[in-house]
Amino acid sequence: MAQPQAFPIHPISQFGKADAAVRRPREIAYFSFDEEHRYRQDDSSMRYYYPPTLPADLSKGFDSFRQLDDTGDDHLDGLLQALIHHEGGKRAKLETDFVTWRGMLTKIMIVPFSNLDSWEMNATRFQGTIFVEENHQKKLDSRQEQYSQAPVRGAMSQDLMSYWGYKFETVSLLERHWCYTERSEIEARNAAQVSNYAQYCSIVRTGFGKSKIVIGGEVDAVFDTKPPEPGARINWVELKTTAELVNEKEVNKYERKLLKFWAQSFLLGVPKIIVGFRDQQGWLHRLEELETQSIPGKMLKTGRRAWDGQTCINFASAFLEWLKMTIDADGVWKIRKREKSPVLEVFKVEESGTGNILSDAFLEWRTSILPRVLAAQQAQAENEVKPETRVPNSDAHNEPP
Question: Which cofactor does the UniProt annotation name (predicted)?
C-alpha cells in the first residue's frame, strides 16, 4: 500500500476567502428503479408532491415495511448504465473530470464542519475521468457500529426512526400529478404500504471551480411538473423529517442537519426542501418549506453560525482540483476521512485496473462499442463532404500553348 497523500482540512479559514465558481446543475440523463428495484431507462418512478394530511402517524405500517436489502454492493452500475444510454443518444463521449453519486460529493462538501464523520471512498481514473464510489464495506461497518450502540432510554429504535422518513415520503407523494389522481387515492396514502424499492435518479452536469462533475442521485419528487425542454430548471422537492425544536439541544441538532439537507439539494439543483416536524413518538405535526439557496444566508444570521455554505463550496473546489493531480494514474485509489482527523488521505491500493468500480458493460461500451460508433460517424461525415469530381467539357478544344 502506497504512503497516503494528505489534503489539509485545517485551518478552515483558508477556504473562506475567494469564492469558487459553481456551474448550475442541469439534468442530462435519468433512470428509474421499479417496484422490484429493476433498472428502467425511463421516468416511471418519478413522483409528484402533494401535502399530507396532518397529523400523521409515521410509525403506522412499520411491521409491513417492504425494505430494500442494500447489503450488496451496486457500485456505480445504475449511473453508468444511464451514461451509456446518454452517450449512445449523443453519439459522443461525455467529457468530465469526475463521475460519482451525490452522496460522495455531499460528504466531501461538508468536511470542514463534520469533524466527527468517518468514511472511505474508492476511486479510479479511466479515459481522463475520475470515478468515485462509496467503500461499501466501510459503510456496512459504520452502520453496524451505530446500531450496536446502547440505546438512549425512551428513544425509538434506529430501524423505526429510519422508517419514519420513508413513511413521510409515502404520505406526501403521488404516482401521477394531483389533477389526474382520484381523491380516494390521495386520502388512502396514510394506509398505503411503505416500500423503498422504487426510485427516480437524476443525473446532472455541474462544476466547482475548474472541475467538471457529473453526479447521480435519487430525487424524491417534483413540485409541479417536469418541463420537457432539456436542461430546463426543474422544481424538484426534497423531503426530510426532524424532531420538533422543543429545546436548545434540538435546535443545535437541526442546524447541523441543515448543512447536509442544503448540500444534498444544492448539488442536484433541488430548489425546495420540505421539512416535516415530528414528536418523539413519530407523529408528524407540521411542515416547513425551505428554499435551498436561502439556507446558508439564514445560518450566517444566527448567533451560532454552525456552518458556512461558501466555505463548503470553496473546500470542495480546492479538494477536487488537488484530487485531479493526485489520482494521476491507472489503478484503484482510496479516499479516507478519519474521525477528528485534520486531513483527508488519498492512497493507491491497486496498481492497475479499475477494481469493481466500473461495470463490465461500461468498460465494453467505452473501449469497444463507442469507438466503433464514432468511427462509423466519422466515415459517414467524410463521405458527405467529399468534393465533387469535375467532368471535362467534351465540346472544348485543346489549344496549343
Answer: a divalent metal cation
7-45 confidence digits (pLDDT tens): 999 999 999 888 899 999 999 999 999 999 999 999 999
- What are the helix (H) ranges across 91-213? 102-109, 136-148, 158-172, 183-187
**Do residues 160 and 393 touch, judged by C-beta distance below 8 A?**
no
Could you identify the residue written with the cell 423503498? 196
In angstroms, rounded to a whole number, what is the distance separating the alpha carbons of residues 115 and 338?
9
Nearest to 220 by CA among 284, 286, 173: 173
Q: What is the pLDDT of residue 396?
A: 44
- What's the rounded Cα separation, in Å, for the pair 101 and 389? 54
**69 and 350 Cβ atoms separated by less than 8 Å:** no
- Using alpha carbons, select from 212, 200, 263 the residue that is nearest to residue 100: 212
Q: Name, in order, each residue with C-beta under 8 angstroms of 10's C-beta and a sequence gap of 6 or more.
A: 342
Measured CA angle at 166 (ends 165, 167), to 5 deg: 90
Whether residue 390 is predicted with pLDDT greater than 60 in this model: the reply is no
Rg (CA), the chain: 25
Query: What does DSSP say about strands 236-243 and 39-40: parallel, antiparallel, or unpaired?
Result: unpaired
- Cβ contacts of 37 within 8 Å, gap of 6 or more: 68, 197, 198, 199
Task: List phi, psi (to 5°) of 389.
Answer: -80, 130
Render pLDDT for 154-192 as a digit per residue (tens, 0 to 9).
678 889 999 999 999 999 999 999 999 999 999 999 999
**Mean pLDDT over each residue of the chain, to the nearest integer:** 93
